[in-house]
Every structure is written in structure tokens, then in C-alpha cells.
Design goal:
The structure holds two protein chains of two kinds. By secondary structure, chain A is mostly helical. Helices cover about 75% and strands about 0% of the residues of chain A. Chain A contains 15 helices and two strands. The chains are: A mainly alpha, B alpha/beta.
Amino acid sequence: MLATLVAQPSGGVVAGAALAPGLAVGGLDYVPQLLNYFVNGLVFSAIIVLGGIGLSLVYSIADFANFAHGDTMTVGAYAGLVTLGAVGTAGPQLLALPLGFYAALLAGIAAAAVVAVATHYFIYRPLDTDSIGLLITSIGVAFVYRAVVQLQFGTDFTEYDVAVLRPVPWIEAATGITITEHELAIVLVAAVLVAALHVVLQYTTLGRTMRATADNEDLAKVSGIRTERVITSMWVIGAGLAGAGGVFLGLYNQLGPRMGFDLLLVIFAAVILGGIGSVYGAMLGGVVIGMVNRLTPVLSDVGLPIEPAYANAIAFVIMVFVLLVRPTGIAGEGVS
Amino acid sequence: MVAVTDTVLDVDSVDSGYGDVQVLDDLSMRLESEEIVCLIGPNGAGKSTVLKTVFGLLTPWKGSVTFRGEDITGAEPADLVRSGMGYVPQIENVFGSMTVDENLRMGGVSRESGLAETIDRLYDRFDILDDKRSAKASTLSGGQRQVLAFARALMTEPDVLLIDEPSAGLAPSIVDDVFDNVQTVNDLGTAIMMVEQNAVEGLSIADRGYVLDQGTVRFEDDADALLDNPEVGQLYLGG
């Protein structure tokens, strides 16, 4: 299930891949194909990064591995579905997406944030338990999120009511790269969100207090930082980005109650690879894992008997090797 | 000797500890305005626990803590900072992943105005910080970190400063500088309650001292008198 859902290439690349067998791997003709894998990897990476940031933030500030994070993405995706249904797809379009879709994106962000903050206040905080207790609790929370989505929407896959697109013709003509406007939108919006997060983290008081709380919560408190507010903000930002990731995952593949959970292991791999607890590590790890995931077809193109269905397994193997060499992850600074 | 005027901090019959483990046992002590009080005693006596309990990192099981006449028992650290109290922990007392400048900003997070001016004043006073503004705190030496920890706590210009073992792990030459800083801050009007393993040096800059043992006060006197007390000398000052 995981492999089929996650490794399913988008329509544009399927068209590209159909050309592959006739091409000589290593020759100049193969370059557009390779570029296509990279571009597809970039799109997939954008979704992983949006999910990974929140996972990393929760780990560093609330101090636990949040197994409900994937299902938080699902919540965002379905909130987007409801909103798109209510707002409709009429009106002007941006990157072949109706304004209603952008409203759905905002709704997905808001719903995921509200659900996560409510979970924090009604479940995680009153429990007042340690990291392991919270981790186990979050598994239960994940089941609850998923069950509620399933009760409401059933177990069938569904899709956003936006037209399936052909690749942008002029990009394909000029470079041979097949990318749809929807995929462009995913990458661009993700880039804007990541850039905005960077500005917040580095140049605002909220961001500095978040970093301070992640660094040393007791010292943050004795410095006068209201850490409870910081933790609430962290949930809003982390879950909000996950909600956006969920909506994009729905646009990229389709929606199903397990969509977020099925992606969670890949996101964990990305966050651990980048250095758990480091937001920038999560971004870097997300790009690496997303790329590796989508570059897997290269292996069969060069004649190795490893099919794209093994994309996730290969990503994990790479994670294991990186951790063997650098146990703190790429950007991790070690456990203090 | 500074003229003693009134009690700013009053710890009254406090029991406190970690989880089920009691550390402080019916402990009482006070801090007068403008004085330096030094807490000494063997490891495990509860010296650091006193500071953590006063500063709201631990909640007293019994007894009360009063700050300038107001009951602050169990108050949040973030509120105590806003009411004029500061705290320098013994270990992990800087944000290692953040720059010196950011550490100072975090110290001044509760300030409503004058942040930049206060940071500039601290840079004027502590040259080593001025040279390292954009260095990450984790790259500083032990002595530099201690100065940064101290400066961070001074960002709010507190009336009362709690300092936990400022000399811990520092080379003897740097220890003198640290104590000089403590004294300078005190001269500018901040009352200081300091825990110090290095009892003789700590008492030598203090007005009064408390000797703690097993979570309670064994001796309480002017610092000079404690230094001269043969019993204290034999039991707690290593000779």
C-alpha cells in the first residue's frame, strides 16, 4: 500500500517514463529523463519537507516523536476537500488551480493547526508524561484522527475537483521536462512557506524564543520566555505546514484516510537523516529522501533489477548508511 | 559593609524536592536589599534547590517565599523575571545554538523598551562579549560562557539576582574576574543570593552567609564571622 501510493509517479512522468526503454542510459538522450526524475523528486520533496518541519519542531520543542503527524496531514487534506466542495472551482485561476483551491489550502493549514493545538491542550498537556508516554499517546491520537476521517469520508480514495493537467508545453518543448502547473504550484508554495518560516525563525522574537525553547526549556523560562505560548505557536506552525503538505499530497496523488500515515515513515526517515530536532536538517533530509525516492527508476534504467516499488526501502538504506557515518544526522549537533 | 535596610526576599519554613525525594527541610533564610548572601555547604546540602525553589522551577511542598512583601510561592519563572528577579543557573546557562547577541536578546525578552541600549551597555562592560557578538554560545570558553550567562540575566536589570556556583569549572584566574563581576553588579544596587562551592572565596565577597547541610540551615552569620568560626571552618571550609 505504502509503495503503490507513494511511488506512484504523476501522470506527466508516466508519459516520460514510457519513452525510457528505447533510450541509451548514459547517453545524451537520457539527460531529459534524468531531469524528469529530479523534477519529480523536487515535487515529492516539497511535500516531505512540509511534513518534516512540523515533526522536527514537535521533537525539539515538545520533546517527543509525534506519530500523529502524518494523520495531521490527512486532516488538512480533508479539510481542504470540504472547503473546495463548499467554495467551488469557479472564478480566476492561478497556475491552473482555481482560487477555491487556495482557499482549500488555507483551510487545510487552519484545520490542521486547530486540531493539533486542541490535541495539545486536551490530551498531551493534561497527561503531563514523558517523551515515551507522549509518543505512545500520539499513536492513539493518530488512530482517532484517522477513524474520524474514515467515519466522515469512508475508506475510498477521492480527488480534489480540479482538472488533471498535461505537462506545461513550453517547458517540455524547451527542456524535455514534463511538469504540470499543479506540480509547479506545489514547489512554489512550499518554497514560499519554507522561506517564510526561515524569516520567522531567524529574524523575529517568536522565532528566537522558539529556538531558545528548543535549545533549553528551563533556561528559556528563567529568561522570561512564556514557553507555554511558544509551544502553542510551535503546534500552529508545525501542524499548519503539515496541513499544507496534506493538501498538496492530495493534489499530487489522491486522498485517502491513510494518506498521511503511509507517508509518515518516509518523513521520519527524512527528519532523522537531516538530524532530528533540527528544522533545517528536516528540510535538507526531506529533499534528499524525496529525490532518492523519485530517482529509484534510474536503477532499472541502468539494468539493475530494483524496481521503483523499492523507492522507500532505498531511502531507508541511505538513511542507515548516513547515520552509520554521522550518527547525529546531516545537520544534527548532537544531543545535549 | 552595605547598610541593611529591608528584606527583599524571605524564604519561610520551606520543604521542597524532586519528585518524591525531599531535599529542603523546614528551611528559612532571607536576603536584604543591596547585600550579597552566600550559601555554602557540602554536595547534596540543597543549595541549588533553594534557588530553584525560589525561582519557581520547583514548587515548595510547604512554607512560603515572599518577594518585596508579595507572596510568590509557586509563581512561574516568567512572572518572577517580570517582577524584577533574575537567575543564573550553574550548568547549561547559555543557549548554545544561538549567538551571543541572541542570548542577550532572550535575556531581555520581557523588556518593553530599551533592549538595544541595554545590550550596548553590556557590550561596553564585557569586552569579551563585544568581540563575539555573532559567535554561537557553544563556541565560547567556560569563562566566556559564564560572563554571557551573567549578562543574559542582567538584561532585565533585576533587583534580586540568584547565582548558582559562578566559579564552577573555571580556572582560578577567571574565578576572580567572575567574583569581581558579581561585586560590581551588587555595587550598582542588585541584591545577590549566591550558591558557592568555593566557600572561602564566596564568603569573602559576601555580606552574610548561610551554611546548609541536609536541606536545612546549620549556621547563619555575617560572612566574616562565618569565616572565623572554628566549627564552620573545620566542618565546611576544609580545615
